Batch of 2 targets.
Target 1
Amino acid sequence: MPTSTDQPDHPVVTRFAPSPTGDLHVGGARTALFCWAYARGREGAFVLRIEDTDRKRSSAGAAREAMRDLAWLGLDWDQGPDPGGGERGEHGPYFQSERLPIYETHLERLLESDRAYHAFDTAEELDAKRAAARAQKVAYRYDRAGLEVPRADRLARAAAGEPHVIRFRTPDRPVVITDAVLGEATLPAGEVDDFIIRKADGFPTYHFAVVVDDALMGCTWVFRAQEHFNNTAKHLLLQEALGFEHPTYAHFPLIMNPDGSKMSKRDKDKAVRAEVRQRGIEAPPPDSIDPGTFTAWLADKKAQLDHDDLVRLAAALGVQLPEINVRDFRRSGYLPEVLCNFLALNGWSPGDDLEKFDNAFLARSFELGRVQKTAARFDRDKLLAFNLDAIQAMSPEVFLDRVRAHGERYHPDFLARLGDRQFELLVESSRERSKTLDELFRTNHWLLEDDERVAWPVTKPVRKAMFKGEPTGLALLAEVRTLLDGTEPFESGQLEAALGTWAAEHCEGNLGRIAQPLRIAVTGGPVSPPIFDTLEMLGRERVLRRLDRCLDSLSTTEEAG
Ligand code: GLU
């Protein structure tokens, strides 16, 4: 059987075929990226197909989210569902669950030519055979018991509605898989058994649906994760039986954690568990999760909290969950162009030590010859450094727009509580230190806090800023109050000038002597944007209110003496 790409002028059609059983994993996003780039760089077409034949695990919501994630990454598809409704392309529907009549036609062809058969084995019979294989320590293979029923009986029983599956009658010969990345492998005869192609619920299995759809949608290149490599044997055999051309296959090694473990949602659970252990926490923080759920989870090392509980507990403990899915990276404030760049480097490189590039460059340059054969290790620090660089290269206006868009999506309450000028000042004064679009929302809670609730626990930096030196920071604060009360307008530039003059008189021009006590007084902690911006953002009234409360609170602590 020829390979469809044997003909040099054959159009390039790639496809990404996610199963909508959860959020889109970064590994899936990388497959999509390579499919997209390969098609875009060769005037080809990129197809998106939703593989939702597993009815129990699939959901329309997950499919919608996957499309959103792809769109966010800038990966547009020529054929597939249209997120706005309807579809693009002529080979739809693009949800497999809507293609059952199409699969039936092709199943019928195999049944007629006796390349497939109805099988009536019960679950108990199959379980017993699997158990026997396990006991003998041999790999289980279906023993073709179904074929012992005469063909006419099989057809009659199926027609009468007896529960059954349809199995493919696998030819008894070796299968050679040729892969554009991993090379060639031969599966010996007998390795692939008579696998199921239609389940008892009437839905095709993944193997059958994927083969029919790749052929009918004209896919000439199949890129996917390495875990599907062995499945390819089944697909090649089905293509031959159905008279379809073989696409060219390329399987990509996985993306792993730096320690070689799989990047999975379990990593999030582990991060929270580690924090709980380290802090010796025995009950969930108030208003986080149900105490019973917490105790049961803590007692069972293998248990995983459900996602909402995990997010709630992580937030209450201040744990930053490791990002695994595209949605996590988006929420954490990574830029889609940076994520694409970085994902491409996890498994591919353009050569010449070039590391920074955009999707247009990737489309021009991506070729399979430079795809790695071994697993990639996902280096989060490097991703963060890439994101920082990209943010630093942005104009202030672009940064402002992007932070605002991020805030509107993930922190609407934060945005709603800030005036325009306040928000612009916060963004501009945070820009140089921002590694992500999310950081400034996470680190500036002091701005939203009720003035009456700011507290000053005497930590090391507080002790140093407030109680050391002659005069002490606290004494300087009491004196600078009048100046702050009278500075007009209460704006960053004006405050800088006034405090500069004041520092020359009161602390030998050492602005730091007053800046840090002030910062602590008005924010409750030692870290905030530049002090003059911090003051302007709060405004005179709130600054004075916090200052008075701080003086009150700290002058009565023991340290004051
Ligand atoms: N639906 C399969 C998955 O998400 C895709 C396999 C393929 O690309 O053939 O793993």
Target 2
Amino acid sequence: MWGGRFAEGPAAIMREINASLPFDKRLWRQDIAGSKAHVAMLAKQGIVTQADAGAITGGLDAIAAEYEGGDLPGDLALEDIHMATESRLAERIGTAAGRLHTARSRNDQVATDFRLWVRDAIDAVDAGLLAFQRALVARAEEHVASVMPGFTHLQVAQPVTLGHHLMAYYEMIRRDRSRFADARARLNECPLGAAALAGTGFPIDRQATAEALGFAKPTDNSLDSVSDRDFALDYLMAATQCAIHLSRLAEEFVIWASQPYGFVKLPDAYSTGSSIMPQKRNPDAAELVRGHAGRIAGCMTALTITMKGLPLAYSKDMQDDKPPVFEAHDLLALSIAAMTGMVETTAFQPERMRRAAEAGYSTATDLADWLVRVADIPFREAHHITGAAVKRAESDGVALDQLPIAVLKAIDARIDDRVYAPLSVDASVAARKSHGGTAPSEVAKRIAEAKESLA
Ligand code: ARG
């Protein structure tokens, strides 16, 4: 395709380092769509004849059918999917194929193809995240009043409900979806027609190709058009943030599934056995989601570093933009599906959770709050009194609400037996009715809103 000025062909090593075909053949659908839009526009503008455009379009459709059937090009001498398809087109329709590349360069071609691919990837991720949110909300509704320990520092802090805990992930995914939506809106400008870097002297209609490919408008600067990979980084950054969320939930499943916790029994379908320890039931899917987050962040880092020193406009380094995006997308799609499956099918163990919440003096704050509210003691002092009560309960090996009233009165005479009511874990969660709090009544409101927005 570019051999005119060269006397010798490339070395085998050069061919190998130069070729992106092994990975960019994944862009074939977008490449054919881009070429069809381009040639239709060329014909409309009178830059190629309707007859040539018809032959090219027919040839591209036939090639698409071949590719669809699994017959994808592999010869490294063809370099990339763009040249492979054009050379296939020449085999099929002859010299008219050579008119397709009028007023176009591979630089704007690949920028267009890749944007189209990332746009499809975002749509696929969004559909996956929607299903994941539905699973979270369904399980949250089932456990809107199931009490579990809430943790800070992974120490039992205050009782919360499992529904509340799951809805925390709903919120994270809501933000992830908005990040992807943002990325999609910013991405949706068409670079086709920027040509190599400077635009073209042919009377092209960039609005027409932009529209044909579903873009909101053409990009406004030809140099930026061929050198911009922000859209790929936007995708990778949103993917990284999302993977972090999935990884945090995965980590919780790993902890919850361990025997000392026993908060969940992971389904057989998402666990594996050990080849040596017959009793084992390992949370491998969750561990791999946690692991994949590291790889996804690595992909984001890879492209960030690739781009950071590149002068305008296109440099071949940018060919390396695709593998990290493809890898991150595959890992993310799989991680979302695995976490959705786990959330849908995990057997939560609310009895174990409740016992753990009751065991950790998780209602100590409720005792302090009672001292403030009923006995009008300043919070700092109430905190101190409560600390003494917890210390005593701990040394007696009992729960806070099992300390006899005489013992509590000895700690502070202002305590009376009305203090017991708020000390149960149920009373504790029910009291936390502030907006976004863990009270079942409050969580139920958030669930209702979520269901409406997911409908
Ligand atoms: N395979 C190349 C890529 O993915 C296509 C663009 C090549 N452009 C060039 N001037 N060599 O970036």
